[in-house]
Amino acid sequence: MARHISWSADASGAICTISARWSEVTGIDVASALDSGWLDALHPDDIDSTKQAWHTALVSKSSVDVDYRLRTPAGYRWFRACASPRLNRFGAVLGWFGTLEDIDDRKRAETALQASEERFRLAAEAAAIGIWDYDVLLGKRLWSDVFRAMLGLAPDVPAEPAIALALVVPEDRPILQQLVDSISQGDAHPRFELTVRIHRANDRALRWMQTSGWRVKSANGRIERVLVTIRDVTKQLTAEQRVRWAAEHDPLTGLINRAAFNSLLDEAIARADRSADPVLTLALFDIDHLKETNDTVGHDAGDLLLRTVAERLVVALGDDVVVSRLGGDEFATIFETPSQEAAEGRIRAALRSLRAPVTTNALTLDCQATAGMAFYPQDGRGARDLLKTADLALYSGKASARGELSRFRPDMRASMQRRTSMLSVARMVARDDRVMPFYQPKVSLSDGTLSGFEALLRWRHDTMGIQGPDTIAAAFDDLAAAISLGERMLERVCADLAGWRDTGLALTRVAVNLSPAEFRRDDLFDRIMRQLRRYDLPAELLELEVTETVFLGRGADSVGDTLAAFHDAGVTVALDDFGTGYASLKHLREFPVDVIKIDRSFVADLLTDPGDAAIVNAVLGLANQLGIAVVAEGVETPEQAAYLRAQNCGQAQGYLFGRPMPAEAAEALLAADSKGFNAHQQPVDEVGLVRRRSSAV
Length: 697
Known about the structure:
Number of strands: 26
Number of helices: 24
CATH topology of the largest domain: TIM Barrel
Number of domains: 4
């Protein structure tokens, strides 16, 4: 039998057209159904409710969705009528277009289900089991009388989650909130269990409630219904058991906490020592960018991510795996598998299960975690050592393979020690004000004059002298260290500029590099502009160099807003190492870029490699069309400079013009340039003047 019948009506709701399927389904002539004739085919009990639904839709100009029974040759069958108004530009209804769908089989199934559920409710009440029933499609909640009595509520209290949530003790409230929130999550496991404590409404007595729930999904995966049974298990739990449960579980996620996990890890290692076959695996999971979520969206959203990750890990890894929240954004798991490959497969599958976005109300959150894995006994002879090796693998993954699984390797120990040492040195450098900017000159290729400097970070060691940034490279990926070094560097550059100004020198623009980590705090613009105001320096004297890395991670929109604020304030924005990333052209279109710096890797073989020459020529042509200035880096020979000048490259920097120099040498170079010297005074070597003037430093 055809299931859909299409029809249309005029603005008043009178049927104008109806498809031939009407006659096939009802046996009634189409002409007889026009205007209001179709009402004659309705079941008498459905006429009033159908008319009321139509009246409401006509008055409100909103869609109509109503179920009713139609007479057919085989008897009455249930149909669903859906219609939407067509409006003109003034909001007036021009007509209605709708369909009829045969839903008789579904209705009969629902009736049978309701009868079955009624029997279940009677049995549950006889067993003193409370019921919380939520019809997601209809938005209808039902609480049984037994459940209301458990909560100490009157029979007429509405079945609102907030009412039940308010009775839960504060420590356990997030657990129940997780259950309520998960109803709107289409990726939840069909079965769930949890235990929470409440203070009964009528006498404030403390009771323990054990809940078991089922989520019923439709064929398309949408949750249609949530059914929860509740048992008061206070009598079954002794005081010792209640205290132990609270002491061993994380109140937010309901998972075991760090103390309980450490105990279970010791037990698992003891079992592994008695059995040579199973592979004992310890895996740590760290939620990516949880701090950014807390800072930008709020801690409620961060808590939702934590609860979702906890639930998804439990579902993905299975009942034979211990899952714990160690604290913060870190989770840990212990499990045994036949092989290391099997363990890796399960962890990778768990990581994939975490990647579905988390949606609540109108908010969609990215969900992703990075994992580190270690095996017993090869990666650690005891629980403490095994945790350290898994943590090293996790850290390595967070640095180079976010969202993926990293397996512990022995060389990770040395890498971590180097990083720890670098961070320690970097903190000392910032704390003791050991930062020293070195300035590398940039020249105008058209006349050989000084056009600016790039400030490069150096630092002073008591016995080894001036050190380069490579000795503290790990600090530029660390939020706190990168910000401290960046502030010290900018402060010294501004102080140098102010000092040169006070001696009467004409200043030129100085470029300062920003690390991607510095963009992870939302006060970057204010911090830099505050330094300029402190030294009474115009924004036009500062150039900020960024690499494409800052555009490729989370928060690219905020990076663009920050750079736009600098651009509007007069600060020049330069894209460094241009051509080495994968989306440079996209960045030129979407972000405020004033200067392109051609990477030295293309300049080095410019005269011998046609491919590099073609790239340089293309970049110069593109920049000229877009009105963007270009600086070629790494120029070391007069021939390279001549080629770039012939291709209309505006500026260059490199050893040909001067190595990075301390502030005193840069001041001398500024003084010499202000006396009017330029490259044209040395025709034998058009681009060598600046190099010769700086050769003594």
